[in-house]
Recover the amino acids of this structure.
């Protein structure tokens, strides 16, 4: 029990460290950007109309006051941490005066949904197939599946997404290639809306799954093929324990332990994938929001998004770490 | 085992079924036949629920908001207009100035109502102007506070502006060319508190449409024709056709093309030339401004290679001219537009009514115009370039290429500067440059580096033009390359953070010969210190006493005074001699309109009544011309 | 070493295929040195020609020969991958070896930082970097940044090996014989971790090329340098897909996929050779 | 007396294929033996002489690269005969644990590390004992008492038990179904001497109670001496002497056996035993003729050419040595 406590403490420390380092990188980088939100706004606001030059000088002044972008680095750093702690990042500069948090909460559900669905499918399916493939070495269909999955594994998310876009958007246009749901449909748990959301998520999810599967598949397969020669498995077979039971409770059960750690470690990468996928399929998540925010030179929004994504990912990792001991009784502070 | 695998296969099958079989209507609860679907080039609106257009880019504006729900005194059409270029919208007549241009009186139409049934009156005008006087940081606060001393309303249908100083162009502030200062509903805003923090959701409309619904994630906005559309200014031209208008984020160019091929996007705002050609070939009912090549609508905007004339090397006119003489406009037109460009040699876009006011009258002068390379004089102008482009395209495109000179001029432009590397060499040497091996060196012996800033994916066509210009300079031995400033271009342009930039410092009314729209801001009084942000539009940061003289004279005369045209021509000759930026072509926009559901779109030949480019506030006039396809 | 390679070639199908694919890719890259065209020039050949003779893989809408462009593109892309791999190897080797050898708090500190870099979503940070450096973001600079973000995962693997080495008696003896830590690491431990370094290099190259392509396609890199990414970028600018100029996108994608699978097969087969218990957790970004 | 297991002409090789180079390690080469019911049969020999492989093969615990090349293993449980390698895996699975159980070498790793001990008993024994769960648990608990373990171990995870406890759990697990034949491979190696004694004693008790047969493999002759009824001695993958433990210890026929016994420390025996020179042969290519001849004190020329036959030298006592009876096999 004390081992568990120590373990948790350690993981939590790690969690704090990740968040801290991440935040600082984000802060430093965003504040090094030469983009000036005020100039961005003015440029955008006056791009087409006819505005006299003195007017612009005046506009610049009042926007500076409005956005409150004056002040040195340290005060900004301090206020940044204050904001992180209360998860309020002030008003967005490219959608002033709407608070950043409002924009993020609007987009976050889409990304989180996308991630949870695709990651679950990927991880479960990948481990299941991988486990079977490792256990039934000479099953043809599994061999083939393995080859296909491994073919996709090394290809970057963008390329896979692009291929899907071309196939289902252009050559055989049966699936929506943009947006998160049908236009002008009332949001809620109505079957139409849910169905529409599902339909729009097929391609993004598919691209994430296709890339992801291979890793889990191979990991699980090699793990399993090592575990089947472990004493306890051999012994169980000598003991005439049913094959299904052996596969489940002896082989898979033991192989899952490292795979769960693997999941925690790869969440960051998966998140990157989600951002790119959203960009390709115009999915209304935080990926698209982030990129447009960077374009608009909107510090506060970029900071908010980076912060939220780092915290979100780390929390997910922490959650997995906490569940880990349930899976492996031999928990020790690693 | 087998069972598990079967299960997996089944799952995959279900997935694809969810996808394919349940193919739905594009928009739910709105009949497609009564809906016009338009691309909003702003893409996804971060802050969808914000309709207070008077707060500086807090939300979207070409989401249909300023096309369908806003209105103000006057509109100037970039093309011919429904009846004339000038339209009195909320005003019942043209602006009335006193003789020294220190007071402007506006007569308002009667019987115009807000969508919530309140009548529009001078009270709203007063409120709008007063609010901008009292509040800092509203979109039009600055120009109002600079110009307006006071405003009064002798009667509910008259507004009188007392100006701080003479300004013969003050009405421009209320004259829609893309947009202008819109009227605020007094009865809403006066209850709303701080006008900077008020979202104005749902918007109360002064136009013929009112908001029906919108996407919280900012991907689409659907507007609905007002029951009482007769009580809006548009009613003078009859009933608007579409019952619903949807402004949507159509994604990247190829997705737009796909969408229109599947008749899910009636108006594409802009696409690549290749996309345009594809639609022309494959989509039977897709239409563009020109029935055939070059298809695109020439916006009254002059795409140019804009130099930063504060940059040491580029202060010298000879250097600028040398660089100009290295450009083969035919290749640039090819690279940027596949030939579908309307070129212009002079500092005015070759569009709308400008050709007859400027390009044609000025051509004799251009033909005789000489520059001195130091070794000898050359006549750089070649009046046949437009024809050459047409001829070079005719073999591949055949009949759709016009052969009547005036048609060619309309489609491809008239003449341009002929490439003359010899003269360029002489000019550079005159300026103290040296060629060492294959590499040009600056007077102080460093390699001659030119970085051309382009916007990248934001404006593919301009990016392509930039790369071609860079290539031509490079081939001459100048170390030239392009720099992508996606998203940051506007700011870098203002900051003067470039050697040369592909952009536009010349934008005009299009329909009206007056040039003050951009020219006034070229006065040397506005040129910023190097490194300081330059107010629009003199991006080249170029000052010249003769120019200042011209501008000051323009300020002194009326908007419609024919003398304005004379002064305009003076300006044209001046910039031709000085070459502060190299004019390339008009900004041609490939707006593609699908006639599957709607007909009556504007076009160059038979219905040039307005600009089809849908993010223009002026496109409200399109609605009354659109009719469902029979 | 060579005998190993020979044996692998003869008896490991994956390895043979990997070598074949990469060989092909490298050949194409090498051809760029004899290209008749300057990759920066456009409109040197008639645009939009479908694959055929004399333009094997057709020509782009910018009037460039796809085949020769491709040879430059893949060359630069590979160079990028190698550079990233090189820098990140140095980082992961140093950190992995030191952490594994020193153990104790040094190890704990290093690994905490390490895990941080594994967990943090890198993409947002990369995009930010682009916007700080803007046009100074040459692909060398980009390689630097990517490398600095991409060492962590392999440092962990190396560390685990180093830890096992530490307990071997030859380490003890060299400690007693008064060798300095750095010498022990370089002369005694490095040889043992080399195999794993090789195999992780392959994965790392894959990963970094993946990033390069993605960033370029999104327009976050210098578009003047022809790479696989910038090729696709230009194709998108000309809506090549809908315009029916499929060869402009298809061939780069095909070639880069070949590269990925080739490198990947090498990594897998090498791993089987070194240590059958190896895992591949990370998916490319 | 009926034979519980009948092994005849059994050959099992380790076949490795390192980059195309085929190697056969003849760990079990033409071995025949039988074990009677209710007897303890010991297998002796230096480590890596193939005894573990032999019983693995008997128990059907073979994994690649180990493969059976020939011969047969026939069980006879209550009159029902079963040829292990002729009949399919189902048939083999059917007898496991009910009739045939197995105690693995170094039983440390035989318990599933991530599940409680209880589950192992359920997985292995529940279906054979065929009683509702509560009774079944009572039976298990009672049986654990036999090996001096409390019920609490059932709730424990393997890593929470000491080596000795785990060993005893393994034995309890192997015996809980009262099988006819128990195969124990070095059950006490890796245990300290005290624990060893206890465990061995325990094994004997259990075996006596259950009246089941036991094949006991260990290199420790002392253990054989005080536990086994009969003893087989292996050298280089072959059985070279077999007989009643008493006879073998009182009068070893084979020089190798003699050496093994001589190397046992005895009270009052001060003379140091001269060690056997040379090392056991490489089973990849064993010496021709008698595999022992390179180390044999009495080696003759014939030993170098021919392998001696394994034949009775006295009733129930078989030996393979020319020095004992000059019969060879071609």
């Amino acid at each position: 029990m004390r081992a568990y406590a120590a373990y948790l403490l350690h993981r939590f420390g790690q969690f704090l460290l990740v968040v801290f380092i991440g935040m600082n990188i984000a802060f430093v980088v965003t504040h090094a950007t030469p983009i000036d939100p005020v100039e961005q706004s003015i440029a955008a606001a006056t791009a087409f109309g006819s505005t006299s030059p003195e007017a612009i000088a005046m506009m610049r002044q009042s926007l500076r006051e409005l956005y409150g972008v004056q002040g040195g680095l340290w005060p900004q750093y301090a206020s940044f941490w204050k904001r992180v702690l209360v998860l309020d990042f002030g008003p967005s500069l490219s959608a002033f005066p709407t608070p950043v948090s409002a924009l993020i909460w609007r987009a976050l559900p889409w990304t989180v949904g996308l991630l949870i669905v695709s990651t679950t499918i990927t991880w479960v399916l990948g481990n299941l197939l991988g486990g079977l493939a490792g256990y039934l070495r000479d099953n043809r269909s599994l061999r083939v599946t393995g080859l296909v999955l491994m073919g996709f594994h090394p290809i970057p998310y963008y390329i896979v997404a692009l291929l899907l876009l071309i196939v289902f958007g252009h050559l055989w246009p049966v699936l929506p290639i943009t947006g998160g749901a049908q236009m002008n449909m009332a949001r809620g748990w109505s079957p139409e809306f849910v169905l529409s959301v599902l339909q729009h998520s097929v391609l993004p999810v598919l691209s994430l799954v296709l890339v992801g599967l291979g890793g889990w598949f191979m990991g699980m397969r090699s793990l399993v093929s090592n575990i089947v020669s472990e004493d306890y498995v051999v012994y169980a077979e000598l003991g005439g324990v049913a094959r299904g039971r052996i596969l489940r409770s002896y082989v898979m059960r033991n192989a899952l332990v490292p795979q769960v750690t693997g999941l925690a470690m790869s969440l960051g990468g998966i998140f990157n994938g989600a951002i790119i996928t959203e960009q390709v399929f115009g999915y209304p998540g935080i990926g698209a929001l982030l990129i447009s925010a960077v374009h608009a030179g909107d510090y506060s929004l970029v900071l908010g998004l980076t912060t939220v994504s780092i915290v979100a990912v780390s929390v997910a990792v922490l959650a997995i770490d906490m569940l880990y001991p349930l899976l492996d009784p031999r928990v020790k502070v690693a | 085992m087998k069972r598990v695998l079967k299960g997996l296969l089944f799952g995959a099958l279900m997935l694809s079924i969810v996808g394919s079989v349940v193919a739905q209507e594009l928009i739910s609860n709105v009949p497609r036949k009564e809906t016009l679907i338009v691309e909003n080039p702003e893409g996804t609106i971060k802050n969808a629920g914000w309709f207070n257009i008077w707060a500086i880019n807090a939300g979207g504006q070409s989401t249909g908001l300023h096309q369908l729900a806003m209105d103000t005194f006057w509109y100037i059409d970039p093309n011919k207009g429904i009846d004339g270029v000038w339209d009195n919208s909320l005003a019942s007549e043209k602006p009335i100035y006193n003789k020294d241009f220190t007071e402007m009186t506006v007569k308002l139409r009667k019987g115009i109502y807000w969508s919530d049934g309140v009548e529009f009156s001078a009270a709203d005008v007063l409120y709008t102007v007063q609010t901008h006087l009292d509040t800092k940081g509203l979109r039009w606060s600055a120009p109002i506070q600079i110009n307006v001393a006071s405003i009064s309303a002798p009667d509910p249908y008259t507004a009188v502006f007392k100006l701080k100083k003479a300004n013969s162009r003050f009405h421009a502030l209320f004259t829609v060319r893309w947009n202008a200062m819109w009227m605020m509903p007094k009865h809403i805003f006066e209850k709303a508190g701080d006008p900077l923090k008020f979202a104005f959701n749902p918007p109360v409309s002064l136009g013929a449409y009112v908001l029906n619904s919108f996407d919280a994630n900012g991907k689409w906005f659907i507007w609905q024709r007002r029951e009482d559309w007769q009580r809006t200014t548009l009613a003078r031209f009859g009933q608007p056709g579409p019952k619903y208008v949807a402004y949507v984020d159509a994604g990247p160019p190829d997705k737009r093309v796909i969408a229109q091929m599947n008749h899910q996007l009636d108006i594409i705002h802009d696409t690549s030339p290749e996309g345009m050609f594809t639609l022309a070939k494959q989509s039977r009912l897709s239409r563009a401004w020109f029935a055939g090549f070059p298809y695109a609508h020439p916006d009254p905007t002059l795409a140019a290679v804009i130099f930063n004339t504060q940059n040491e090397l580029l202060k010298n006119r000879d250097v600028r001219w040398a660089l100009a003489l290295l450009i083969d406009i035919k290749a640039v037109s090819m690279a940027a537009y596949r030939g579908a460009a309307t070129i212009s040699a002079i500092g005015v876009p070759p569009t709308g009514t400008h050709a007859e006011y400027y390009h044609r009258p000025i051509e004799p002068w251009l033909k005789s115009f000489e520059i001195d390379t130091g070794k000898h004089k050359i006549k750089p102008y070649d009046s046949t370039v437009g024809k050459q482009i047409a001829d070079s395209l005719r073999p591949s495109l055949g009949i759709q290429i016009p052969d009547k000179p005036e048609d060619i001029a309309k489609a491809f432009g008239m003449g341009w500067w002929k490439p003359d590397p010899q003269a360029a060499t002489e000019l550079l040497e005159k300026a103290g440059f040296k060629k060492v091996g294959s590499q040009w060196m600056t007077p102080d012996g460093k390699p001659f580096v030119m970085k051309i800033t382009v916007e990248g994916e934001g404006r593919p066509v301009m990016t392509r033009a930039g790369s071609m210009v860079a290539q031509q300079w490079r081939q001459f031995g100048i170390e030239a390359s392009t720099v992508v400033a996606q998203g940051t271009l506007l700011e870098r342009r203002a900051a003067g953070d470039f050697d040369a930039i592909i952009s536009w410092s010349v934008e005009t009314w299009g329909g009206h010969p007056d040039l003050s729209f951009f020219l006034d801001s070229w006065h040397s009084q506005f040129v910023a210190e190097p490194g300081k942000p330059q107010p629009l539009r003199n991006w080249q940061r170029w000052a010249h006493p003769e120019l200042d003289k011209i501008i000051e004279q323009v300020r002194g005369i009326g908007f419609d005074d024919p003398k304005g045209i004379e002064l305009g021509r003076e300006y044209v000759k001046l910039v031709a001699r000085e070459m502060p930026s190299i004019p390339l072509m008009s900004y041609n926009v490939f707006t593609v309109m699908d006639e599957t559901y709607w007909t009556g779109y504007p076009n160059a030949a038979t219905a040039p009544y307005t600009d089809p480019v849908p993010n223009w506030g002026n496109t409200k006039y399109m609605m009354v011309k659109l009719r469902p396809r029979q | 070493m060579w005998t190993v390679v020979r044996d692998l070639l003869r008896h490991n199908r994956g390895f043979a295929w990997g070598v074949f694919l990469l060989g092909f890719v490298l050949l194409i890259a090498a051809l760029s040195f004899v290209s008749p065209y300057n990759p920066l020039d456009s409109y040197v050949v008639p645009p939009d020609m479908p694959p055929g003779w004399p333009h094997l893989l057709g020509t782009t809408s910018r009037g460039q020969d796809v085949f020769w462009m491709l040879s430059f593109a893949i060359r630069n892309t590979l160079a990028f991958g190698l550079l990233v791999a090189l820098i990140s190897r140095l980082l992961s080797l140093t950190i992995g070896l030191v952490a594994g050898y020193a153990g104790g708090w040094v190890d704990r500190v290093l690994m905490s930082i390490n895990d941080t870099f594994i967990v943090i979503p890198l993409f947002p940070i990369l995009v930010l970097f682009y916007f700080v450096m803007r046009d100074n973001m040459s692909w060398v600079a980009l390689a630097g940044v990517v490398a600095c973000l991409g060492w962590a995962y392999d440092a962990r693997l190396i560390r685990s090996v180093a830890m096992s080495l530490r307990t071997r008696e030859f380490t003890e003896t060299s400690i007693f014989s008064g060798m300095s830590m750095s010498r022990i690491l370089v002369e005694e431990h490095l040889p043992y971790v080399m195999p794993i370094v090789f195999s992780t290099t392959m994965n790392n190259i894959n990963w970094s090329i993946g990033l390069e392509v993605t960033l370029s396609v999104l327009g976050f890199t210098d578009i003047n340098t022809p790479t696989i990414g910038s090729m696709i970028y230009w194709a998108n600018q000309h809506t090549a897909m809908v315009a029916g100029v499929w060869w402009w996108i298809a061939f780069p994608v095909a070639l880069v996929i070949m590269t990925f699978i080739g490198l990947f097969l090498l990594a897998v087969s090498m791993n089987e050779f070194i240590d059958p218990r190896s895992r591949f957790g990370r998916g490319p970004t | 007396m009926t034979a519980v297991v009948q092994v005849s002409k059994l050959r099992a090789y380790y076949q490795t294929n390192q980059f195309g180079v085929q190697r056969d390690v003849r760990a079990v080469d033409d071995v025949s033996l039988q074990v009677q019911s209710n007897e303890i049969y010991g297998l002796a020999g230096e480590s890596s002489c193939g005894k573990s492989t032999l019983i693995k093969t008997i128990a059907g615990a073979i994994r690649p690269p180990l493969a059976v090349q020939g011969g047969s293993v026939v069980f006879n449980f209550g009159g029902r005969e079963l040829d292990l390698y002729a009949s399919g895996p189902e048939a083999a699975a059917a007898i496991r644990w009910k009739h045939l159980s197995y105690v693995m070498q170094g039983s440390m790793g035989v318990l599933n590390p991530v599940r409680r001990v209880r589950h192992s008993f359920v997985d292995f024994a529940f279906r054979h004992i065929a009683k509702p769960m509560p009774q079944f648990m009572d039976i298990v608990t009672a049986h654990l008492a036999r090996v001096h373990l409390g019920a609490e171990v059932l709730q424990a995870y393997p890593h929470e038990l000491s080596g000795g406890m785990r060993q005893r759990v393994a034995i309890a697990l192997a015996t809980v179904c009262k099988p006819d034949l128990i195969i124990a491979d070095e059950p006490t190696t890796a245990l300290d001497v005290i624990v060893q004694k206890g465990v061995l004693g325990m094994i004997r008790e259990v075996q006596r109670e259950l009246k089941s047969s036991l094949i006991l493999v260990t290199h420790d002759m002392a253990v054989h001496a005080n536990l086994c009824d009969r003893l087989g001695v292996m050298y280089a993958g072959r059985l070279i002497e077999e007989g009643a433990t008493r006879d073998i210890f009182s009068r070893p026929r084979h020089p190798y056996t003699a050496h093994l016994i001589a190397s046992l420390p005895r009270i009052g025996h001060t003379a140091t035993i001269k060690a056997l020179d040379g090392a056991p042969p490489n089973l990849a290519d064993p010496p021709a003729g008698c595999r022992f001849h390179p180390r044999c004190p009495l080696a003759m020329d014939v030993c170098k050419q021919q392998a001696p036959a394994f034949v009775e030298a006295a009733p129930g006592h078989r030996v393979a040595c020319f020095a004992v009876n000059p019969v060879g096999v071609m």
Q: What stands out?
A: The CA atoms of residues 45 and 145 of chain D lie 33 Å apart. Chain D has ten helices and 14 strands. Chains D and B do not touch (no CB pair under 8 Å). The longest strand of chain D covers residues 3-18.
